[in-house]
């Protein structure tokens, strides 16, 4: 519980899932209450960003995996660059939405552009738990997933607090700027203190030796090769 890389990764999880939570909870509400779209139009336009980000992730996932396997890029670089690029594009998208007003088409364009790299989370922070603690990846991933769902409760609470008595663009601008501030701060903390190097508490260097000593066939095979 005192591992700085672990808590840095938890902060990174919070950052990326805040973006995802905003798209899942806030975007349809914003388009319905501020842009006054009917439910059918709202549903169609709100489905564009997740569809585009899923397709884009499929196109980018293979080159990233190929670059790591060939040794052109490190795993740590992939994790942090995926996180950073998603955060930058999302913040630019939120900023654009806050500035363009109530045009549904432009809002959809900025929401789509801002969320285009949203699924980079899958080969960003989501896999970093396996990197730092391969022997405890299940436990670590469970804790991080708990951290990741927290924004899904905080974001609706903030929206309800700010728009309870006034559903205006000014109130939503506060929500957008708050989101940008949270994402920037947490992303910077992850980039500075996060790592993909295996941690001593999450690995067992003696595991391989103990498995070999308990497996006579493996031991005999190694002796034969030597």
TrEMBL record:
Keywords: Membrane, Symport, Transmembrane, Transmembrane helix, Transport
GO BP annotations, alphabetical order: monoatomic anion transport
GO CC annotations, alphabetized: membrane
Transmembrane segments: 6-24, 84-102, 109-130, 142-162, 174-193
Major localisation: membrane
Membrane topology (UniProt): Multi-pass membrane protein
Signal peptide coordinates: none
Subcellular location: Membrane
Annotated stretches, region: Disordered: 197-226
Listed Acidic residues bias regions: 203-213
Molecular-function GO term, any one: symporter activity
Compositionally biased spans, kind Basic and acidic residues: 214-226
Protein name: Sialin
């Amino acid at each position: 519980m005192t591992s700085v890389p672990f808590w840095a990764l938890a902060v990174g999880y919070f950052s990326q899932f805040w973006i995802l939570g905003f798209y899942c909870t806030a975007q349809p509400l914003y388009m319905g209450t501020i842009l006054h779209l009917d439910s059918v139009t709202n549903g169609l336009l709100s489905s564009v960003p997740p569809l585009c980000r899923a397709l884009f992730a499929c196109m980018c996932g293979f080159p990233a995996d190929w670059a790591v396997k060939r040794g052109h890029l490190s795993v740590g670089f992939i994790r942090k660059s995926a996180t950073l690029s998603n955060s930058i594009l999302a913040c630019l998208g939120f900023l654009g939405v806050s500035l363009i007003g109530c045009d549904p088409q432009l809002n959809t364009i900025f929401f789509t552009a801002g969320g285009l790299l949203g699924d980079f989370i899958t080969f960003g922070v989501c896999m970093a738990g396996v990197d730092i603690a391969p022997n405890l990846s299940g436990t670590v991933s469970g804790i991080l997933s708990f951290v990741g769902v927290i924004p899904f409760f905080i974001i609706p609470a903030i929206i309800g607090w700010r728009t309870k008595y006034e559903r205006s663009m000014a109130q939503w601008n506060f929500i957008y700027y708050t989101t940008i501030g949270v994402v920037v701060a947490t992303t910077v903390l992850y980039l500075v203190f996060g790592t993909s190097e295996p941690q001593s508490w999450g690995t067992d260097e003696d595991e391989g030796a103990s498995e070999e000593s308990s497996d006579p066939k493996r031991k005999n095979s190694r002796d034969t090769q030597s």
